[in-house]
Amino acid sequence: MTDEPNVGARLLKRALGRSLRQRRTLAEIEEQVPGTRAFAVRFAASVHGLGMADQEEVHLLRRCIAAGLSSYRLARYQPEFDLVDALATFVAGLSQRCEDDRLRALVAKALTDRQRRLIADRLPVCQARAG
Q1: At what angle do helices 36-48 and 20-32 cross, to 10 degrees?
Q2: Per-residue pLDDT tens for 20-49?
Q3: 114 and 108 in contact (C-beta within 8 Å)?
Q4: Under DSSP, is residue 78 helix (H, G, I), strand (E, B) or coil?
Q5: CA angle, 38 as apex, 37 and 43 as ends, to 5°?
Q6: What contacts 94, CB < 8 A, 6 or more positions away?
Q7: What's the gap between Cα 76 and its chain centre?
Q8: What global pTM score does this model have?
Q9: What is the pLDDT of residues 77-91, one digit of tens each?
Q10: Residue 107: how many CA atoms within 13 Å on its side-chain side?
């Protein structure tokens, strides 16, 4: 990751942009599964650590975060949707937008052990512990 304080939070804020809908959706997931926003911040900080150009980082994060939030919005009205589904659909959508294994590994690494255990049976990306 990076030593620069709050870089992940700043990048996440830039990736969310002015979209009130995305901010509200992320807050909704966070309310159901505390720590989800922190996961997104850690993922953003990891992307920053790849050394991409600033606009590339923001563009990549915008696409990935938007995909995760969209997956959650589509799934939240399914019968028996629970807090595990909330986190799992967000992480799955985000992971699907990652173009390569290196980025998918960052997703797994950004999850806490508790988050990883919580959704491991639903998402293959979480089964392998990120070193």
Answers
A1: 120
A2: 999 999 999 999 899 999 999 999 999 998
A3: no
A4: coil
A5: 95
A6: 43, 64, 65, 67, 68, 71, 107
A7: 16
A8: 0.87
A9: 888 888 888 899 999
A10: 30
